[in-house]
Amino acid sequence: MKQNLQNLGAFQNQKLLTRAILLAFILALLTGCNFPLSTDLTSPTISHQQQTERAGILNPKGLETSEPEGVETQSTPIQPTEGAVEETLLDGYIYYLTQQGDTLPALGRRFNVTEDAILTPAPTDTGILLPVGMPLHIPDTLEEQLPYRSLILPDSEVVYGPSVDDFDTIGFIESAGGFLASYEEEVKDKILTGPEIVHWVAVETSTNPRLLLAFLEYQSGWVFGFPPGAEDDPYPIGFGATLDTGLYKELMITARVLAQGFYGWRDGSRLRLSFYGGESVRLAPELNAGSTALMALFGSIYTKDAWETHLYGEDSFLNFYREAFGDFESRAAEVEPYIDSATEQPELVLPFEVGEAWSFTGGPHITWQTGTPKGAVDFAPITGEPPCTVSARWVTAAASGLVIRSERNVVAIDLDGDGDEGTGWVLIYMHIAEEDRPLVGLQVEKDDPIGHPSCEGGNSTGTHVHFARKFNGEWIGVDDPLPMVLSGWQIYAGDRRYEGYMQKGEQVVTAVPYGSSDAKIIRDE
Hints:
By secondary structure, this protein is α+β, with helices and mostly antiparallel strands. It has three domains: 2-68 and 154-333, no CATH class; 74-146, Alpha-Beta Plaits (2-Layer Sandwich); 357-522, Distorted Sandwich (Glucose Permease (Domain IIA)), CATH 2.70.70. It is built from eleven helices and 21 strands. Strand 7 (357-366) and strand 8 (374-381) form a beta hairpin.
């Protein structure tokens, strides 16, 4: 860590020389700056009401820049990985090597072709995860010359996955010694410190804490420094959403926008990059989820010209990130691919006891915050108990594993038992009542009780349990390529959130938000 701080100080000194910014630095362990407010950026006077609001996000700083010289917008060659063969060019086709998480449906949407138009080395089922490094020939149908084709950030640097490893978020912030270390804020009727806020946002949203800290420091200087007026700044990151003030909510917006870019790219539903101010461009189809996530984050807060400066300029965020938190490319090379064609869901059972009647009240919907895939389902006990009471019924373990989180009405079970929430399969249960929750470190077996369903934690209109899955830090949707199957029931998502059904053989149960006989399910095994 000391070496990282020394590297950061050198990086900041170079920034002072090249951009002529008057900033205060604290030597030894403390180094602070306010990167976006450099002298080559203009900050027009503009009221919150006058600013353009897009997706509930405002930009109070209104930063603009001139276009930087030498912006790299052409792709770097995609290097062959496992199983790749020598490139063979076909007229009218693009040669593409598959990346982790790729499926034919998603690639079809990104390249604007039908699945059957993609030439594969061997017959390949639709919807499955493709082997990493598989050579494909895809019709070249995109007529426009697309910019920003370089892969700029690995997937593993976005999610709370294997690359997080033993990174101590709270310890790092405290050692950095900046304003963030002593910051406090009331979050959901509880006073949390700055280190606790970053830790909880990272863990609960499954977002890489290094990326959150780097973005916060780049925007505010809070991690290593003491920027003037920090204690009175409701928007340390600069989103400026009218009702979302303070560090916790600004970090939650950060995680949300990253998720929108990341998971939207994974399933091929997000094809355009939008910038603050209204401009947009089509995303190059050969990008990866990590790159599109970071592009989306900076696009949500900066105009197009400023965005290019901050991602491709000499003093870019990526250069800063590398100086402050180490070589992220090498870090990613040690853990990627962390999801591949061999990945399968382990056997899971319904999260309640055999013979009990429950209602399938929530079809597939977001696993956590907006932007995450439709990977969660809701079950409510049929007991006749008053609405929003803590039920006498038990939620049970869908598989054997280690309880690694039991707090804030969430229980997380680590199926590989290594105690790391960023590796392997992890089951997430929400709305678990405080009473009778299991202790962290408890080894549970399949069907062991892990708490009572309730309305506690998050928004809830009735007693239920919210159930979701993660693999190596990625939230997993219920449909292909890793379908959710519980006690032989496969879950299918509807067109809208909370719609969908479960099917086992010829039996079908449709989700009904307020429960009905059609939504009743009795676990029989």
